[in-house]
Amino acid sequence: MESRKVGNISNIDIVRRSPLFIPTMIYLLGILIGSRYYADIKILLRALFLSTPIAFFIINRFYNRRGIHTDILLPVMLGISLLLAGWLNVNTSGFLKMRSEHSKIAGIESLEANCKITGEIAEKKRSIQTEVTLIEYNEKMLLYIDKKIGLGSVRIGDTIKCRIMPKKISNQPGSSFDYARYMERKGIFCTSYVKSNDVTIKKLKKPTLRERIMLVREWYIKSLTKDNDSQESGILVSLTIGDKSHINSDTRDSFSKAGTMHLMAVSGLHVSFIYAFVSALFSFLGRGKKGRIMKLIVSSLFIWCYTALVGFSPSITRASVMATLYEISSITERDGSGLNSLSLSALIITLISPQSLFDLGFQLSFSAILSIIFVYPGLNNMMYSEKWPLKYIWNIITVH
b or e along 121-154 (b: 16 or more beta carbons within 10 Å of the residue's beta carbon)? Predict the structure, then answer.
């Protein structure tokens, strides 16, 4: 890595002060390799169970003695263990099977199925679109239901018994966007349309925690869009929770041509606003230890409730982890490392969902923060001014 200075600290010094960064990069490299090359899970487990004890043995035996064991062999064994852990995680997640050729229903012409609604319900011109999971096949698909059924007749968690005719999702002619692959990475390979008189609905009785969160999200959307056909309500929904399904194509084109379509996506900036608002609101708690602990609990509650509401998108989860770690570091009175916090958030996200590494939101969010950590300070120091208006304007220019 280039030893370029960032203020008075070089990039190498930033990495050295962030012990989680290199291990995280190795773990993510394991996910990247595992996404391309499948290895037998038993072989990966044996290799992991072999390398990890060796690393711990070296730590226990030679930790206080500098030498080839601690300087070379230990980093190599730890690196191998992390690489194998990432490889094993993505191989066991089923990511490699997220291809239409692995679909269990794509080759079936017609079938009776029990479809549980597991995704958002959106009203289209002639139908109601929702994401369902076929219980018998444990496979997701997009289901379009005849609009005559009524938008309020189905809710998340309900089970629909109907006859479906699965069709593989394909790309739009002339479009450069690979929509089929995008849906494959979400585990959705097929779509189907059903008539209202061919549907039997079994209502949800005991929702799970995830279903309760989705129902709260659905209630929020309906409270904004109910009896209001204007695009303002759809834009508000998109700005707050990132759901663009209530914006028509004309409005989308207008935002796209104006170069402001990115405003319709939720990001870490939303978490920053919530964190700043809650911090200001509860500033009366004071800066004592008890006050900061209460502030941590309250701010974390608000932040993580919002994160759950928007569906734990990578960019929001990253920002929530970093905000929580910042509050914890202020309580423990330790200097928080931005790169360490970023690395920990990447680990948490990819441990739970390794395929998140290939999510565009994940890549853009983490690339932006890495740029701020490594590039922004150097650009900011290119021009120094004691006049705060010029300094403020230059800070805005360089951070963007």
Answer: bbeeeebbbbbbbbeebebbbbbebbeebeeeeb
User: CA angle, corner 246, sides to 241 and 247, nearest 5?
Assistant: 100
289 pLDDT more than 70: yes
Cα–Cα distances (Å) from 300 to 57, 278, 321, 343, in that order, read 38, 10, 9, 19
In the chain, the amino acid numbered 92 is: T
Identify any residues that bridge with 201 across adjacent strands, giving them in sequence order. Answer: 160
Per-residue confidence (pLDDT) for residue 288, from 0 to 100? 80
Contacts of 248 (CB under 8 A, 6+ apart): 231, 234
Q: Which one is predicted more confidently, 267 or 263? A: 267
Q: How far apart are CA 248 and CA 234, in angstroms?
A: 9
CATH architecture of 100-206: Beta Barrel (2.40)
Chain mean pLDDT for the chain: 82
Distances (CA, A) of 263 to 138, 243, 260: 35, 12, 6
Question: Which residues partner with 168 through β-bridges?
Answer: 190
pTM of the model: 0.79
Q: What is the mean pLDDT of residues 149-168?
A: 88
What's the one-letter identity of residue 233?
A: S
Q: CATH 2.40.50.140 in the chain, residues?
A: 100-206
Query: Cα separation of 99 and 266, whole Å?
Result: 28
Backbone angles phi, psi at 94, to 5 degrees: 85, 10
Tell me the two tokens of residue 394.
């230059």
